[in-house]
Structure formats: structure tokens, C-alpha cells
Amino acid sequence: MNIIFTRPLIDTEDLMSNFLSSDNKIIHMPTLNIKSSNMKPLNTKDYDGLIFTSANAVRFLKIENEDKSIKCFCVGNLTERSLRLKGFNNTVAASGTVNALKNLIINSENKAKRLAYLCGDIISFELDNDLKKSGFKVNKIINYNSTKITDINTESLELIKKYPPNIALIYSNRSAESFDEIIKKYSLAELMTQCTVMCISKKIEKFLKSKGWKTVVFNPGEEFNKIDQIKNG
Asked: Which residue has the higher pLDDT, 16 or 40?
């Protein structure tokens, strides 16, 4: 299989390595530039829990103390793994969607009422507002910014031309927009007719379908299984 990875290299290096070892052709075409917003260090004593809807929010987290036992609610396994690698030991993960994360927080046994919600500048779901309606006190903290990349380097462009992609993985709405713009800008649509775009949400899928893409929804961590299904389907 010829597979396009659109996430920044730091987010996808391990996954790409696993696919390379499976004799797939890998094309790295980043669609977003992620930068820290230089958040003020967080005092975990001010909160009962932290919320993370992406691994980027974990990467740019700053805390004042070394207390890493605070309850952490994660959107999925990848985000939880990132927290564990940073030493946080009281984590729980939803099934990969923000709606599932909201339900996880609302239905948690020991309700954490004071929450800090770490996220990027562009969000597709007003999680903090929904939680406030359920009685939680939520402080939304934007700790990273993303900008679209609409150019592709010569090496990746040549790989796409030589190995027309079968799969492209998309992890956010903004990434989907950038992906579609790149394909149009470089007139690559004819090379992508056999490409299935894998999306992590129905909202992303809806956007890409409106642009004419063949799509399928997956949960982060299930990339191998979903690609096998596509390959054998």
C-alpha cells in the first residue's frame, strides 16, 4: 500500500516506522504547522482535573509543580500515551471522539468539578461550553496554534507521482482543508482516484466527501486494522 501521512513528523514518526516495516510505501506530506502559544505555567492545585483533546495539547503543556497525579481526561489512547510518557499516572481515555470524552467526564465516578481544558486555537466542538451546562467549572487554555501548510516538497511530490496513494490519513478539520488545497494546487487529483482518505471524525468525513473524496472513519490507534480492512476489502 502507498500511504500518505499528513501529521507533523514528531507526531507520526513511530507510526510511519511501523508501516515501513510492513513493506508499505510511505509518503510524508505534512498539512499543518504546530507551534506553542507560550501558555502561562499551570498550577495543578487550582484544578481537580485536566482535559486533553490532542497529543499537541500534551506536548505544549506547562505546569508549575511536579505533581503529576492529577486526574487527566484524554480524547483517545494516543493522547493518553503522550501523558504517560510525561509521567502522569492518573489518566483515562475516551474512544477517540470529543463527544465520547464529554460523556466520560460527565459520567466519571469521582466528579472533577474544576477543570482546565487544554486545546489548540481551532476546535470543532465547544467542549467547555457543554461541560459548563452540566455544572462543571471549565477554564479553556489555548496552548498551541496551528497554521495550514499548502505547499509540498519536491521529494514528496515525486513520490506521489511515482507511487499513486491508496491511503491518506487525516486527523483534523484544518488538516483536511489543507490536504484538499494541496491536491488542487499541484493538480494531483488524477493520481488520487484510488485513494481512500481515512478521517478521525464524521465531521471531517462530511467535509471531504463534499469535495469528492472516497472516505472512511477510524479511531486513532486503529490505523493498522482499518488499512488492512481497506486492503482486503
From this structure: 40
Residue 44 has, within 13 A of its CA and on its CB side, a CA count of 17
The number of folded domains in the chain is 2
75 and 27, same structural domain? no
Q: Is 58 or 96 the better-scoring residue by pLDDT?
A: 58
User: What CATH number is given to the structural domain containing 103?
Assistant: 3.40.50.10090
- Give the three-state DSSP class for 223: helix
Query: Does one domain contain both 60 and 122?
Result: yes
Domain that holds residue 164: 2-31+149-232
CA–CA separation, 87 vs 190, rounded Å? Answer: 47
User: For 76-126, how does the pLDDT look when each residue is reduced to its tens digit (9 = 90+)?
Assistant: 887 898 899 999 999 999 987 788 899 999 998 766 689 999 999 987 678
Counting Cβ atoms within 10 Å, is residue 128 exposed (0-12), middle (13-18) or buried (19+)?
buried
Report whether 167 contacts 198 (CB < 8 A).
Answer: yes
Please give the pLDDT value at position 169: 94
Instruction: Return all residues near 170 (Cβ < 8 A) that are at least 6 apart.
Output: 6, 31, 176, 179, 197, 198, 199, 200, 204, 208
- Whole-angstrom distance, CA of residue 159 vs CA of residue 38: 36
Residues 101 and 155 in one domain: no
Q: Are residues 194 and 116 in the same domain?
A: no
